[in-house]
Queue: 4 jobs
Job 1
Amino acid sequence: MSDNPLVSVIIPTRDRPELAARAIRSALAQTYANQEIVVVDDASAVPLVLPPELADDNRVQTVRLDTASGAGRARNAGVRASQGTLLAFLDDDDRWRPAKIERQVQVLSGDGDAAAVETGYELWDGSRLVERYVPRPDRNLGGELLERPRMQPSTVLIWRSAFVELGGFDPTLLRVQDWDLWVRFADSYQAVALPEVLVDRDASDADAGLLLFWYRDMVHRLEPRIAPLPPGERSRIRATHLLVESSLLARLGKPKAARHKAWLALREHPAGWWRPTLYMARTVIGERAWSTGKHAFQGVTNRTAAR
């Protein structure tokens, strides 16, 4: 690895020019200078036009797709248009803190066995902190990925050679394409967990029905990997997936179906009884009361973690 490798920053966007400009500015503000930024306009209804100071920056180029293809295909197009030996993906509604790329290059250069490095992030709903995630250096990435998505695109720096060998993001997936990629990544490669929060993400307002469809699709893809696991681990992972379905069904206004999924989770993994019980209570008290209580709990938790 050279001391100053070129990092290609890939930013997919559609119909969100203000957010795209914000993301680009966070990339340009990096303390690591050797970057190129490829912004992929995924067939926005009105073609993306960047503010003059961004459009005139020679580190920034724009690629426009004629047909809306989804974030995975857009990222792949950005990679093809780029030159860097390292790739960094930045969703248009996320921002990097200034030292993000510099810290990742430092860590990756010091670990000859790793093909990628992931940082932590904070998830925000406006000014309210929803979640703080910090990856554990001692984690089992392959095992974690069977249970929940990790390595959010905006948190990862990866060698181009590894990305290309994996075939990039699956263009047939309109959602979960990043989760799918990292599962395949973990089969052959190692990623360093950098336990620092260096990314700010915006909470998604995506349609719960769409999320449920693609979540079920991903769980179906993961099942051949889950089935051979030891019984306790297998049951815990399956229960987690059932509870995610329960949560999405509750958001869709289907309390009976949500309660049934929570009950199945309890049967699947009785040792974790408290979570299914909580989810069943959610279907009784209603989404408004649940949301209010959840926000209050998160506020206390986040204030405690910040001390």
Job 2
Amino acid sequence: MFHTLFLTCGNREEAEDLTQEAMARAFEHWDRVRAAQSPARYVYKIAFNLLRRRRQRAALGRLLLRREVEREDSIAKVERRAGIVEVLLELPLGQREALVLVDWWGMSSTEAGRILGIKPASVRSRLHRGRTALRKLLGGEDDA
């Protein structure tokens, strides 16, 4: 779970906090978690919900401090990046979640959809948009 959260949020300390918080909440409601069809999926869902809530609170704070940032060309962005985690952070959270769960961990769109609380078709849509955006960030060809 820690690795999934780290790849999704890009911050080791935040991933550790989210993992611990998700486990603590699962422990508090163990009867409900244990009765779930997939306890692991249930805990992942808790963790992703915690991450989303944190991101929503942070976004509200950033709205107050938002400023225009010059757009760099995609090659300069990639050269500046130290690894794939930083490139993933350029994508919206929903696309990152879908890419990490399906492309990184090999889950089906159905499994990922259950964790994210969305339909498999929505997972596939996020995957398509995320992959297209990654190609653009990496200076590759566009599907269009």
Job 3
Amino acid sequence: MMYRFSICSVFLVSILLSACGSVNETEIATTPTLSVSATPDPCSSESLPSETAKVNRLMREFDDYSSLASNTPQSQLVVLVPELQRILRDAEDQKVPVCLVELKKLQLAHMKTVVQTLIAFMNSTDATTVNKGIAQSRELHARYDVELARLLGITLPAPAPTATPDPNSIPATTSTPSTLVTNPGASNASIRSAPDLNAPEIGVLEVNASTVALGKSADEKWILVDVPNQPGVKGWVDPTFLVLSFPIAQLPVVAP
């Protein structure tokens, strides 16, 4: 019986060793081979368009709110400024590759200038300071556009020259050539039939265009101007985001 037990023991050990060997071989055969893939270069010609789109998405959202603010009464800007500040924070937190550092720098400078200018306007800061902020924000946005075009390898169209007005089409007014209102913004400014945001729009002051200021409302929140391309027609424009070549205080008050 001892002999039979020894044979069985040897046979059992052989089976166990054989089984263990089979498992190890299977594991080795099925172990996947890990391959190391190179990280795509975010500044390559293939990746750059998608990377710039991430930055420009926030810029476009900011521009939308800025355009809305340009047609919003001063008393209601308190609702829009927090949204602009939110987008600014998102832009500050956004990580960009080294090739987009300059683009982000110009973006943040533009956003900060717009927010600061709006806050100054809400606090009734003098018009000279506000107009300076508007001009500076416009310049920064233009530099941002140039840098974006450079990165994408596109050519920006040259700004359309402002047409020289026909002296015969401008009615005689008491205004001097220095009382000009210019729209430096990214969108056209509405000219309305009355100094009221709900009044019908009767014309626009296009981007980079200027017109003559004729007077102001009693609260100095609206300016009476000649409607471009409509001889003899006058309308009211909100000067919040316009550049004035004169102190608004020098304009006479005109009844609607």
Job 4
Amino acid sequence: MKTVHLLAAAAVAAISAMSVPAFAANAIVNGDFSTPNTGGGWENSQGPLVTGWTDVNEAGGNVEIGNSSIYGLTCISTNCQNLEVNNNTFGDVFQTVTGLTAGQSYTVSFDYGGRTSGGPDSMNFLVNGTQLGATIGGSIGSWTPYAFTFTAPNSGSATVEFQALVTSGLPSYGNEITNVSLLSAVPEPATWAMMMIGLGGLGVAMRSRRRMTAATA
């Protein structure tokens, strides 16, 4: 009976491990744009203040973050803050993540909102320079969730990029982003192996238990 219990425990542990992805935690730095805390206002800065993000269209790579209410949106993130891709111009904001497993599938998700002033906004979302999905826009005054899956290249890195498009709207208004995350989309091969071992162990445990029950009946 003790052996059966041990096999069952090992099986449960292995199956539980199946749900743990390669990136159990969000690999994106400052994906909720909570740093720095703008105290209800907004901040146009770079370096140690706006950790992790750079705008290639802005002098010094400056990035604008601020309280979501400034942009006519509700609070859905830590410190109620978000990125405004359009800073002083139609922005192009990116962050590069390293340490990914080559050939592994990953999912990037984020919330997109349209600012209630400044005219029409739109942008493309890219990973490693390749646009994923259709052009994003609309959602004026509300948040819309998006998620895109990609395969990590041999380099094991991914550049996540929000690229504003030139529109008839004001270049310094619009394309609000928050709650950016990058997580493993499927378990790694080692995790699948653990799952199969667990299922096998569970099967052995169940057969052994049935035999013991039949013998004592």
